[in-house]
Amino acid sequence: MLHMRIKVRKNAKLPLKICKGSVKFRLELARQYNNEFFNSICNKFENNLIDKDIFSQNLSSINNNKIKFNLKESNEFDSCLGCVEAVFDKKNKNKIVSYDIYIPISQDNKICLEDADTFMH
Fold it and tell me: pTM higher than 0.85 for the full model?
C-alpha cells in the first residue's frame, strides 16, 4: 500500500489554457493524466525502482511536452517526501515556464515506487 505525504505550493497549478473547464472536468483531466502515466511506467519498475530518466520521459510524453517538468532531489528542498513548485519567467513574474518536482531520488538516479505518488501533483 502506498502512503502519500504531498505538499503542493499554491502557485504550482497547471496553466488554464491546458486545464480549462469546470472543477469536475479538471478533476477528470487529472485522473486521466494519472492513469496514463501510471500505465506508461507500471511495467518499467524493477525491484520497486525506476530510472529517473525513464520516469521523466514518460511524464513529459503524457502531455505531449506541453508542460515542462524538472525532477529534483527532494532532500535539497524540503523535509517532506516531495512537492511541486512553479518556476516563473525571469522577466514576466506572472508567467509559469516550468514546474520543479521534488521527489526522493537515490544516488544511482532511481525513484522508489513508494515515492512515485508525488508525480502529478
Answer: no
